[in-house]
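Researcher: I'm comparing several assemblies side by side, and this is the next one on my list. It has 624 residues spread over two chains. Same procedure as the others: predict the full complex and return the structure.
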Amino acid sequence: MKPGIIDYIILATYFLYVLGIGWLVKRRVKTGVEFLTSGHSIPVWVTSLAFIATNLGAQEVIGMVASGAKYGMLTCNFYWLGAVPGMIILGVFMMPFYYGSRARSAPEYLKLRFDEKTRGFNAITFAIMTIFSSGISMYALGLLFQLVLGWSFTNSVLLSAAIVLVYTYLGGLTSAIYNEVLQFFLIVLGFAPLAIMSVMKAGGWAGVTARTTAWMARQPAFAGNPDVMTHTWRYMGHASSNLMGVEWFGMVFGLGWVLGCSYWCCNFLVVQRAMAANSMSASRLTPLIASIPKMVMPVVVIAPGLAAIALQQMNVPGILIPKGNTYNYNLVLTNLMAQFYPSGLLGVGLTALFASFMSGMAGNVTAFNTVFTYDIYQSYIRKHATDAHYFKVGRITTVVGVLLSIGAAYWAAQSNNIMDFLQLVFGFVNAPLFATFLLGMFWKRTTGHGAFSGLLVGEIVATLTLGLTRAEGTGGWFGVVHTFPSAMAQNFWIAILAFASCFLFTVLVSVVTRPKPVAELENLVYGYTQIPTEAHLPWYKRPGPLAVIVGIACILFNIWFW
Amino acid sequence: MDDLRVPIGSFFVILGVMLLIAWFFVSTSAPLASPSVNLWCGLAMLLFGVIMLLLARRGKAS
């Protein structure tokens, strides 16, 4: 891939805009609360797009194109099962408590609802995770640009880190959110032409279906159901009959219920965007509106992956590069760009890639900021300082957070195994959290001791399950009790067991410990929270009707590509 | 900053114009790209940018 001068001008224009937005926002951000939480000031269309843009990091874009090529339409389950239901649950059921409690972060909600130790546990694990996630994002960027463009790893990492640092330092969360909206449009408009052109080249959807079927027919294991790549549910009955090696139960409960909901409802990274909205109803609408573009995102990110397989079947060179006895799927996106994007559009595509890396990084940095300043610094280091003091701490934390991420990126570069391992662990470290939040919000009897011990047991069960089972060469360090057909199935089942054990243990310990007095549960628990009535609003501004429409649309998508 | 639609709109207007320039002056091409891809994408981004700017103007007027 050889970008021309026009491509570099496009990239430079984008950098100028990003920094400019940071500089313009700076004039509006005058207090620590505004810097770290946006002070409940952002309109709903902005928070909604930022809500999905934070999740639309480059690993997501590159990874989903790769999964599209590897698993086909089955990848849509990450959207229509693993995302939309979780977003609906957040908007309809959970957001009233996050927003109504006036907590500034998800760990702070745990402090208000339960106790200090539950908050501390969550805040510290979350802070460590965000730093590593941001570092892994940077590492992936450096590696990709080195491989595709021949840029130096250090230069790419430092350039992207410096830009993210400047705009988050200047305008804090507001600046990150505003830039995420620009990034969202850039990612969609920058990659949509690739999806359109690659699918057209492969003969439209009919051509993609016919050619992927011909491709799978060559593999003995799928000779009986060669159309496996263009269906989401038809072959989920048994793990051996679909490409992910997962059966429907692990998929529905592991991905849909536990991993999907724990990510979309309990990960402060995304929840923070909804909490920044300018009213309770805006905060509830945020995930619901966001689920509409999320639902159609497979067109942009999964279709090119499927088209890549069809093009390979047509013997188009340079798309699927062999790697060992399989293919390097992570390069499918950039290989397609090299084939389809001439100078000009190539600049837009590269800029969109940069934008997606930066939105992933900035999201982590701003979430780390808030959690460190309010849940670690203010709780354990200096309790009663002025807002100006926490403003300063927030800014310093931004710098420190970016520096730590750079460190994490270089650490990941030292040892590839470490990164795979961390991604595996991050996959399920959140899983028990959904049980904690669910019980905390909907069962008034849940106690702080119950929540804390449930979380702890959930994490231990997750670690033990990984240590005692094996799949595709991972896990099983303490002996092998069970072998999963795929790493994906292993991950889903770890999540299911972590959730179930956390749920069970939280209930058991809560029953034998003293509950919080009802007076202290106001605005934290269902039944003791004033949810503002929305009857006077038109139906499209009310969470209930919107959730029903989005839910039905999501079910129709599942049936359409059954 | 009052309205995010202004920077987003102006960014895509600039991007659209740049793609039109690339279509008109730069003759490089990618192996599978049709020759007018920069033209179509440039027009689409220009249109998107103009709509954003118009929305921002209407929002300001009301």
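Model: For your comparison table: The radius of gyration of chain B is 14 Å.
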